[in-house]
Design brief:
The structure is a homodimer. Chain A has two domains: 159 residues, Alpha-Beta Complex (Aspartate Aminotransferase, domain 1); 244 residues, Aspartate Aminotransferase, domain 2 (3-Layer(aba) Sandwich), CATH 3.40.640.10. The first copy, chain A, is of the alpha/beta class. The longest helix of chain A is centred in the last third of the chain and has 35 residues.
């Protein structure tokens, strides 16, 4: 494609995205296809000769789009949101156009320095300790893995990197921690048996006294308690672990404390929610995802550390072909994460922060939180439904509950209810288990979700529940 | 920004990218800035209120662009290329517009199935074994880490994931292997002391007999040889390790063989270069990067495995909130890599493969290989310069050599020569050490690089060398 064709097709793509975002509500939220439906429409062998962009773009619309699940649909209440925004999309477009690979400062100084600046802005906005340093990673999975590796090295005075993993290093998480904690601990060589799952309280928050009890027991048995992963806003229910208490334990016992605020993090920019983020002064590392609930299209995960020297010492490898003249004066973010290569992710976050401003982002978050309040009240007014967990932010966990508190029949009922709700194709909710009960998750946080969408979701939920009752 | 503004600004961004790609040659290849130059132009605090997109876009042009190192410049001969292409840029734009997070099949069936299809196409194009399965990852660093983890689990019958890393698992690479091998081995808990660096031959290729000798010695000492990482196209010099011989050793001794063809992989689509990729039938995993030398903007790394069951069993964690109705029938790529979240990377590769076709991509690669031949001949004709390594593809390693073969003065001379060449701002080359000698790397592979750019680079190199001679 020459540049004239690029310009022509570029305009067409702008128009298509514009129409898509305007009309996304007309699509079924969740792709209507069955396994194999898309694949069977695509040739099994690559084309020998180049094809026209018109043909390719038409196939995109005809074959690919029907197989897309529409994360930007206002009826998106599944998992957590993964917002994009016009600003962020344009910045990602520019990033692709520049095609810079930002592994070290020299390979695009502006990318590194803008990343420092926006990480600093976000640190101020969230009220994180001023001495923390930030880096943009792809996902919280990678950030949590970095935390576990750094913790492992700190606990062993960097011996694991040299001599290999020790068998007696332990990691502490609650039963409600995200699966990336287990995955990261396995990757880093801890082993699943060295992960201690700490019980949670009635709000699904980690019990600090149980944590300390387990740590004491492990020490007595010769283990080296290495890292605690606390969650602010768990995936299942949005629970907040008691970081102030956990932080004191970790501080006293010299254990790395990593905080996973992947979803909830942005809420720290709201003064009225700041109380949920107390105790960070004793935290060693912290991750949250602007690509979830902060209008920055996936991927963009912000990872903060108290001591960047520990992080880079844990991850740096220094081959000759990557050495540059300024290595001593600059940040080379290649040593701040798992991968060597890096996209210029700071640009889209910068576009979003500047275009919305702090006040604009606060309004954006408050809208969802108030919609979640609205939805909670709808449930509270209905005898047949119950709230299953506190909902501090945009995630509401609930289930159909016909007067009984627990029974297998209710689990099956809710499971079928969820299928029927999603079958209506106007909304998409997902599920979890809370206290072993099948629970519906209504995660409100999509950019274009308004009160009418929440009202409509509630109508559908009630209608389907009524249809199922004898 | 509303959608009308998005459309207007979208057109402006299309125009800007168009102009950028057309005029990129006018910029200094390497950003002219000093450390801190960009940062000091940016406010230290975030804006309270939103700003106009015009202002933000203007700052992008005035502040950010002068700090960009231009990877798409035709004078880009540094590191390896990281091509983009108009097709790929448009697809990345669409991907951002859709904003789909493709962690499992259900969260966008088309993304998963298109990924299977394009991975299959590329497998055929490269002549890889038909039974291999592919997945798109972000970088070869992540893919190599996956290989090391899978090897670790296979060697221990999945005990490491359960009980933690063993101290006696060893990894084998040549001295010329990429730094991601060491980084991955450290992350996965092997420890640097359990990495065996095997000597290379006069072409910088791993010596298979030395590998076998080391494996035998390790076994006798109670180690468990776990993984060999062979490279096809090393970073320093483009060397090809003898995979057929290594494969036989690994097959006989049941050791995981991972092949890192990050840079050179695309050349396997050329019949005349296919001989460099022999012996893959005994390989367990293989990575190459379409984001380097195949027109697909960073990031897009293809990872192939012989046995996907071993990969997913090594990486799968299965929390309730990620379970879907079709989990038994579909590929959930979340279990094929380090991260849970995934962008829709298959789209850009599909656009590139269809728009160029196999023949178009072959022409693209042949152009660079013939330019590298041209450059090699220029060096061979000059008494003062020498080729330091064979150049099979687009990477040519050379140095100024004033009749002498080795001396510290020559190292200093070449170091200064490189600085002077890059100081001219028309071309950007990087360096490496080969046999401890400071060596210049001329990596030819940028989309728009033509013979005139190579000729110009050679003029600059010679001019600067002449200026430095007394």
């Amino acid at each position: 494609m020459n540049l004239d064709d690029f310009r022509k097709n570029g305009y067409a793509v702008v128009d298509w995205i514009c129409d898509y975002l305007e009309q996304v509500e007309k699509y079924p939220v969740k792709a209507r296809v069955k396994p194999g439906d898309i694949k069977k429409q695509l040739p099994g062998t690559p084309p020998a000769r180049g094809e026209e962009m018109d043909t390719i773009f038409q196939d995109f619309k005809d074959i690919i789009i029907p197989g897309i699940t529409h994360w930007q649909h206002p009826g998106w209440f599944a998992y957590f949101p993964a917002n994009n925004s016009p600003e962020s999309i344009l910045a990602e477009f520019l990033t692709a156009g520049l095609g810079a690979q930002c592994m070290v400062w020299a390979t695009s100084p502006a990318a590194t320095e803008l990343e420092e600046v926006v990480a600093g802005w976000m640190r101020q906005m969230l009220g994180l300790p001023p001495e923390w340093s930030g880096v943009i990673q792809d996902t919280a999975s990678s950030a949590t893995l970095c935390a576990l590796i750094t913790a492992r090295e700190k606990a062993t005075d960097f011996k694991v990197n040299e001599q290999g993993m020790e068998k007696n290093l332990t990691v502490y998480v609650s039963h409600e921690a995200h699966s990336s904690a287990e995955k990261g601990a396995k990757i880093a060589g801890f082993g699943r048996e060295n992960i201690r799952y700490i019980p949670t309280d009635e709000k699904f928050a980690l019990q600090a006294e149980e944590l300390e009890r387990q740590i004491v027991e492990d020490k007595a048995r010769g283990f080296i308690p290495t890292a605690v992963i606390a969650t602010l806003g768990t995936t299942s229910s949005g629970a907040f672990d008691p970081v102030p208490d956990i932080g004191k334990i970790c501080q006293r016992r010299k254990i790395w404390l990593h905080v996973d605020a992947a979803y909830a993090g942005p809420a720290a920019i709201l003064p009225e929610k700041r109380h949920l983020f107390q105790g960070l002064e004793n935290v060693d590392s912290f991750v949250f995802n602007p690509h979830k609930w902060l209008l920055t299209n996936f991927d963009c995960s912000l990872y903060y550390v108290r001591d960047p020297e520990l992080l880079t010492r844990s991850l740096a490898v220094d081959p000759e072909y990557l050495k540059t003249a300024h290595d001593k004066e600059v940040k080379n973010y290649r040593d701040w994460g798992i991968q060597l290569g890096r996209r210029f992710r700071a640009l889209k976050l910068w576009f979003v922060l500047r275009s919305y401003g702090v006040k604009g982002l606060q309004e954006f978050l408050r809208k969802h939180i108030s919609l979640a309040e609205f939805f909670k009240n709808l449930i509270a007014e209905e005898d047949n439904f119950e709230l299953v967990a506190p909902a501090e932010l945009g995630l509401v966990c609930f289930r159909f509950n016909d007067g009984q508190k627990e029974s297998l029949e209710l689990d099956e009922f809710n499971q079928e209810l969820l299928q029927r709700i999603n079958g209506r194709e106007e909304v998409f909710l997902t599920h979890t288990l809370l206290r072993d009960n099948f629970t519906l998750r209504m995660a409100i946080g999509q950019r274009t979700t308004e009160e009418k969408h929440v009202t409509r979701a509630w109508e559908i939920i009630k209608e389907e529940a009524q249809k199922m009752q004898p």
